[in-house]
Design brief:
The structure is a homodimer of 348-residue chains.
Chain A lengths: L1 E6 L29 H9 L8 E6 L3 H7 L8 E4 L5 H15 L4 E6 L3 E2 L2 H16 L4 E6 L10 E5 L11 E7 L4 H9 L3 E11 H11 L1 H8 L10 H8 L8 H6 L5 E6 L3 E2 L4 H7 L8 E4 L2 E4 L5 E4 L4 E5 L4 E6 L2 E6 L6 H4 L1
Parallel strand pairs in A: 1-2, 1-4, 2-3, 6-10, 12-14, 13-15, 14-16
Antiparallel strand pairs in A: 4-9, 5-11, 6-9, 7-8, 7-9, 8-10, 16-17
Chain lengths: 348, 348
């Protein structure tokens, strides 16, 4: 059966003060559409599997927010990390849990705070990857066709010379590349076999569990030891004990860089990791002067190329700004030039 | 005995959203010193007279705010206008009331929302004017020595060729001038006998009542008719009936422009009508980049010549602004270039 794992433990600081450590980006309606990014992520996967097979891995601090935002999700499908240990321990934990309830599970792993424009095409891509991993021990990633030399994303180098036999749009990965310089990113774009790493993975549960056993034996042993305890009353207490002993490492470093059978599905359904205000600006509806205004009563004069995000203000008037970010959230106000947005982390 | 009349019925809109129709400027601690402009105005006059002789004329809507801000003021010293009729009816009403309790009263009339830097010199000037009007039928205004060709104030043209016999710093007024153009203001400054009209008047009660009888006989009759009713239970009800029938006119037009015995006391104690954000900016303490920051936790980067006024925000970060006004108040946010501040009235 298909399962969807959504990683919702992040505490991004680039969207402060819209987001905060206590209410990070995934729980916010950043696009002003009435649904949080987490809710939109779940919505996107309905059709791939039932709500009963959707798993949210998050921090203990966020349990209530997840339950409030996803009232139809079974409470025991929320797995709680006692501390932050990056994506590898998170994925190992949920993989062993899923294995305990469905040893033949076929799994999509996804971040909770990304945005996808063309949801039907996204579902089609995920379904094709799931069909592929249902019959193979492959690890598949969704690779996004880049349309500009973005330096904020990692890249996947694919071998496009021959496709797999079962799916003509799935190719072997030659290497994963970290966020490049602009020079290098331009080079990647010039070649046609580089894709943005979306952080969306597809595999069957046996494949990922075996990959942990091979490439992260210590971590695998930690979760293997608890195999009789998953879905019991003792699970949380034991996880609270062992999870902090896991290495703090991403699944990219822990597995992807080592495994052989890694594949990429190049796709073009419009994707953003919403990693910056300027990336959010691209996605938001804009007025004739390229302003994105999110809030109830926002008026702008002599203003262009700006974002005003003030969902908790009753009324906002902005005059005479070009290329600015104006954010107000629950008593905190940030005004900064958009080109200085990398400094936002330092501002709070 | 000395009496002080403070006119506190204004609803200025130039400081929106710091001020609002329900909480206008005089009730706000615009300077961030812990006292509202009204409270500072009262403080300034203590020493001139007792609290029992201070009269506040305001709108009915503001009675509670006045009582809260001035708990030591006798409740019946707050006179309530049922509607706004500019300064002449306001001054007529309070003058007849004071006459009914103290026919030999000597009176200072003052706006409630101005700022004065050197309070001891202000008190000295007022006391000298009161000494003068105690012995004469003069109408005296405080004229401020201008230090720049301000176009936002009215001017008083004085005849400096000879002073009065009793006070060497009190001179006859030749004329009142409306807010001039910059050209004309520069001409006024070049001459040395033009002073800013502070809107602060000194006279004895007989003088002002007589002036109303002569120059505004209709208005005088309205308040004269109630002479047996002041300070009785019926006062408010009768005022509610007759006040709306008064002409909507300023005391400058109603009395000053007609009366002969008008004098000016030129003074230099630092005065501002706080009529604009830039005038407030001049008075506020500023950082080394000429920023005035009023609020609890305001940090600025790459920012100069700006005002950030956000007393109801917990935290404010501003980057990359030069010459801007940033105001947040109870869910309303305004950002505008300071040089466009005259448009603020149109923004709300």
């Amino acid at each position: 059966m298909n399962h969807v794992v959504i990683m919702a433990g992040g505490i991004g600081s680039r969207f402060w003060p819209m987001s905060s450590e206590s209410v990070p980006k995934q729980f916010l309606d950043v696009l002003g559409v009435g649904r949080s990014l987490l809710q939109m992520t779940v919505d996107r996967f309905l059709g791939i599997c039932e709500m009963d097979n959707i798993w949210i891995v998050t921090s203990k601090a966020f349990r209530e927010q997840v339950q409030q935002q996803l009232p139809d999700l079974p409470a025991h499908n929320i797995l709680l990390e006692p501390c932050r240990r990056n994506t590898a321990p998170c994925i190992a934990y949920v993989s062993w849990v899923i294995k305990s309830v469905d040893p033949s599970a076929n799994i999509v792993v996804s971040p909770s705070d990304h945005y996808i424009t063309d949801v039907p095409r996204f579902r089609e891509a995920v379904q094709q990857c799931l069909d592929f991993t249902a019959q193979s021990d492959a690890i598949v990633t969704l690779g996004m066709q880049p349309d500009h030399p973005e330096t904020g994303y990692g890249y996947i180098e694919a071998d496009l010379s021959y496709a797999t036999l079962t799916n003509q749009n799935i190719f072997r990965v030659d290497s994963f590349k970290e966020k490049p310089t602009l020079e290098v990113a331009k080079e990647y774009i010039r070649k046609s076999n580089y894709f943005w790493n979306s952080g969306i993975f597809i595999w069957n549960v046996a494949t990922i569990v075996n990959a942990f056993r091979v490439y992260q034996p210590q971590m695998a042993a930690i979760f293997e030891n608890l195999r009789e305890q998953y879905r019991t009353e003792r699970e949380q207490q034991l996880i609270d004990e062992v999870f902090p002993t896991c290495e703090n490492i991403s699944v990219d470093y822990a597995i992807m860089e080592h495994a052989d059978e890694i594949y990429v599905y190049p796709a073009e359904f419009g994707w953003s990791d919403l990693g910056s205000w300027s990336s959010l600006h691209k996605l938001l509806p804009k007025d004739e002067h390229n302003n994105a205004l999110v809030g109830r009563n926002i008026r702008v004069y002599d203003t262009a190329n700006s974002i005003v995000h003030a969902t908790t203000e009753r009324e906002v008037v902005v005059q005479g700004l070009d290329g600015y970010i104006v954010i107000e959230k629950d008593g905190t106000l940030l005004i900064t030039r958009m080109e200085e947005e990398q400094r936002i982390k330092l501002f709070h």
